[in-house]
TrEMBL record:
Sequence ranges assigned to domain Aminoacyl-tRNA synthetase class I anticodon-binding in this UniProt record: 365-499
Keyword Lipid biosynthesis attached: no
Stored CDD domains: GluRS_core
Subcellular location: Cytoplasm
Protein role: Catalyzes the attachment of glutamate to tRNA(Glu) in a two-step reaction: glutamate is first activated by ATP to form Glu-AMP and then transferred to the acceptor end of tRNA(Glu).
Species for this entry: Confluentibacter flavum
The protein's name: Glutamate--tRNA ligase
Motif extent ('HIGH' region): 11-21
Gene: gltX
Subunit structure: Monomer.
NCBIfam families the record matches: gltX_bact (TIGR00464)
Amino-acid positions noted as binding ATP in the UniProt annotation, renumbered to this chain: 263
InterPro entries for the chain: aa-tRNA-synth_I_cd-bd, aa-tRNA-synth_I_codon-bd_sub2, aa-tRNA-synth_I_CS, aa_tRNA-synth_I_cd-bd_sf, Glu-tRNA-ligase_bac/mito, Glu/Gln-tRNA-synth, Glu/Gln-tRNA-synth_Ib_cat-dom, Glu_tRNA_lig_a-bdl
Domain Glutamyl/glutaminyl-tRNA synthetase class Ib catalytic: 4-346
Length: 503
């Protein structure tokens, strides 16, 4: 790719970052890194009425946790700063007025009451009110008014907005990397507001101006912005600027496959839709996050990469570097991608096995007060034995509690299966064998106990099942000899004697 790749993720700080936003950020990040480019964070906070305290920091924290930090943004390498649109508002008015001078935009003085009247009037007639070429000369704007009348209104301080003047009877030929060629009839377009009466730009104007000034080469954003593409292309043309390349990502669909994924879906089906936990600053309601629910960032990134993108191979497990090397916008699908809560668990299970045992042990011990005094090296050994069946760190206690305390109860069905009339006698003999093992290692235990079972000419299950039940409380867990070695000779004997006194 010949030109310098610069992409931006431009969320609004109106609440927590949705999983769909994380996917958009990820695809921008992967594309930038693939082409040795720059990944930019820009905070689009022109709508101050919807601004939520703490949302911007949440966005930054989320990107950092996911392992996709920005190269330029608020407080970081501000080469084209500031990166908050509210701090750039002095820039936008001159560009809006430039469009008025060129004839591509106009002042509109229509009051909210007048516009509401026209909307209701159209609704009663079964029509939709669109402010554009077919009615703008009948409304109050600098196209229908004389220059003298327009100046008088401006001098009098009348409220106004600046609207883009959409052309009539033209066909726009647009290009999208993912969706190919798109044709738009300009007659169906409305004259969008570019500059509001409160002195702030709308998203459309600020977005185009900032992308141009920040030298954005590719705009990679969600499908919901596709209807804005025609206006944005026209704005670039009106300013005489070269437009970036556009790519509109497919929607992330509900697990049912129909409709856009929402927070309500997560609440209903029991999974998060935000990367980090979020506390609403007004209501103090808590929304779950993938981090707090025990997911690894690598699992989330690997999962999100496949929501709309396909590498063209059977490979599913990708490191971040592998994703960067394989990523291609032309392999992003047009159709929506179904969100599968079970699939991200599958990824998390895989990355659970990849984690360092000591780090897992530290996180595990921190979750349980009863493990406070446990040697961390012992806990790490335990984790290494049981993590194969764990998806989350929170699974580890149920899978390993018997390494830290003797079972208090025994599975009834397991007792019926494992205990026969001769079981107590065999277990007492086994205790003698265990006590005579000099060097209490896994290998020696295995050798001596298997030799004894062979000499007695009995099935291994007659000994190993009740032994496992004595040690664990159920017929589950890792290798029995590993468990015995870990808990030690004295504890092993006590547990065998305890089940004989209990069952």
């Amino acid at each position: 790719m010949s030109k310098n790749v610069r992409v931006r993720f431009a969320p609004s700080p109106t609440g927590p970052l949705h999983i769909g936003g994380v996917r958009t950020a990820l695809f921008n990040y992967l594309f930038a890194k693939k082409h040795q480019g720059t990944f930019i964070l820009r905070i689009e906070d022109t709508d101050q009425n919807r601004y939520v305290e703490g949302a911007e920091q949440y966005i930054v924290d989320s990107l950092n946790w996911c392992g996709i930090p920005f190269n330029e943004g608020p407080g970081k390498n501000e080469k084209f700063g500031p990166y908050r649109q509210s701090e750039r508002k002095h820039l936008y008015k001159k560009y809006a007025e430039q469009l008025i001078v060129s004839g591509d935009a106009y002042y509109a003085f229509d009051t909210a009451e007048i516009l509401d009247f026209h909307r209701k009037d159209h609704e009663e007639k079964g029509k939709t009110f669109i402010y554009n070429w077919h009615n703008r000369l009948k409304l109050s704007n600098s196209l229908s008014l004389s220059a003298k009348e327009t100046k008088a209104k401006l001098d009098a301080g009348d409220e106004y907005v600046i609207r883009f003047k959409s052309p009539q009877d033209e066909t726009l030929h647009l290009k999208d990397i993912i969706r190919g060629d798109i044709q738009i009839d300009t007659n169906i377009l409305d004259d969008k507001v570019l500059f509001k009466s409160d002195g702030m730009p709308t998203y459309h104007l600020a977005n185009i101006v900032d992308d141009h000034l920040m030298e954005i080469s590719h705009v990679i954003r969600g499908e919901e912005w596709l209807p804005s593409l025609a206006l944005h292309y026209q704005l670039y043309k009106a300013f005489g600027w070269k437009a970036p390349e556009f790519a509109h990502l497919p929607l992330i669909l509900k697990p049912t496959g129909t409709g856009k994924l929402s927070k309500r879906d997560g609440d209903k089906m029991g999974f998060p839709v935000f990367p980090l936990q979020w506390e609403d600053p007004l209501t103090h309601d808590i929304s779950r996050g993938y981090k707090e629910d025990g997911y690894f960032p690598e699992a989330m990134i690997n999962f999100l990469a496949f929501l709309g993108w396909n590498p063209g191979t059977e490979q599913e497990i990708f490191s971040l570097d592998e994703l960067i090397n394989a990523f291609d916008l032309e392999r992003v699908n047009k159709s929506g991608a179904r969100f599968d809560p079970e699939k991200i668990k599958w990824f998390n299970h895989h990355y659970m096995q990849e984690q360092n045992d000591m780090e897992l042990a530290e996180a595990f011990v921190a979750q349980y007060n009863q493990l406070t005094d446990i040697d961390i090296n012992y806990a790490a050994l335990v984790v290494g034995l049981v993590k194969e069946r764990a998806t989350f760190i929170s699974d580890l206690w149920e899978l390993s509690f018997y390494f830290f305390q003797a079972p208090k109860t025994y599975d009834k069905k397991a007792v019926q299966k494992a205990f026969n009339e001769d079981t107590p006698e065999l277990m007492l003999e086994l205790v003698t064998i265990i006590q005579t093992v000099n060097d209490f290692t896994v290998a020696n235990l295995q050798t001596d106990i298997k030799a004894w079972i062979t000499d007695k000419n009995i099935g291994f299950g007659k000994v190993m099942m009740p032994l496992r039940l004595a040690l664990v409380g159920a017929l589950q867990g890792p290798d029995v000899f590993e468990i015995m070695f870990m808990i030690g000779k004295i504890e092993t004997v006590e547990r065998i004697e305890n089940i004989l006194n209990t069952v």
